[in-house]
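Researcher: Structure for this, please.
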Amino acid sequence: MRPQHLKCLDGIRALAFLIVFVSHAGLENRIPGVFGVTIFFFLSGYLITSLLRMEWERARRISLKNFYIRRACRILPPFYVVLGLASLLCLFGIPNRDVSISGLLSVFFYYYNYLTLLSPLHATLPPGMGVLWSLMVEEHFYLIFPLLYLLLLRRGLSRTAQGVVLLSICGAALVWRLILVYALHTNLTAVPRWTLHATDARFDSILWGCILAIVANPWCGDVSPTLARHKGSFAIGGIALLLFCFVFRNPDFRETLRYSLQGIGLFPVFYYLVASPNSWASRALAYQPLRWLGWVSYTMYLVHDFALFVSWKYFPTHAVLATMGTFVACGCLSEMIRRSVEIPFRRVAHRRELAKPAGEAVAR
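Model: Predicted structure, C-alpha cell format:
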C-alpha cells in the first residue's frame, strides 16, 4: 500500500524551481537562486527519509536494492536524455562546441562538482549544465545515508536519539565550513566555490529534511503537542529566519552559518505545511498548475539554464520574450520527457517491486 500523496510537496518543488529559474534569468542579484536548490535539498531529504521510515515501520526492513533501483529509475533517464540532447546540439555548434570528454565522464561517474573545483579546465560541459553540481551532491549523499539510517534503526535507537546523531552531523558540517573559511581561507567569491558546491560542505541541507522526517513527521503520524499547538507561530519564525538569511549579506556568514540557519528555518515551515493540509498555504501549493510544474520541475531544472543560454545568444535583442519563450519551451519538453521517459521507468521500478522474487536480499 502506497503512502498518501502530499499535494503541497509538488507545489513546494515548483516554487523551488521558480526561484532558480528567475535567478538564472538575470535576477541573480535580487533572487537567491541557491536558496531554491536548498529547498530542493531539504525536500528531497524529507521525502526520501519519510518513505524509508514508512517501509521500515510497515515491514521492519528496508530493501536497499529496491531503493537504489527506484533512485536510478527516477533520476538517471531524464538526466541522460537532457545531457545527451545538449551535447548533441553542441556538436553542431549550438550554441557552441565547448564540451569535453573529461567533463562528460565526470558527470557520468558523479564527480563533476569536485572536478570543477580542482581542475575546472577539464570540467567543460554544454553551457548551462553547471547546475548538475547539485545532482552530484544528492547522489553522493544517497550513497551513504540509507546505510547510516539503516544502521541507526538496527541498533534500536529511538527517533529522538536518531535525530541527535543526525543533528550532530549537521553541526560537524557547519564546523567544516567554518574551518574552510577561517582556517583554510577558501575563496568566497569564486564560482564555483568549495563552500557552495562541494558535497562535504553542503550535504547538511539534505540532512535537515531527513531529521524532520524522523523526529517530527506529521506524514508518519507523529504527534508533538508543542509543535502542533504553536505550528503557525513557529512557521512565521522560520520564515523570519529565512528572510534574515536573505538580507544579511556578509560573505563569511553566507558561506558558513547561512546554510545551517536555512535548514532550521525550513524545518517549521515544512512541518506546518504537512501538518495543515487544509490551511490556505497548503491549498495554494496544491493548485493544479503549480503541482504540474512540480511534476516536471526536475527535468526543467536540468534543461532550463542551457535553454536560456541558447535563447539569449540567438535572440539578444528580445531577452524578455526569449526568457518567457524559454520557460514555455522547457515546460513542453519536460512534459514530453515525463510522459515518454520518466513515467515508463517509474512503472518498471514499481512492477519490479511488486514482482520481487522470493529470497531477494533485504536489509533487516
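Researcher: Any notable elements?
Model: Residues 19 and 35 are 8 Å apart (CA to CA). The mean pLDDT is 93.
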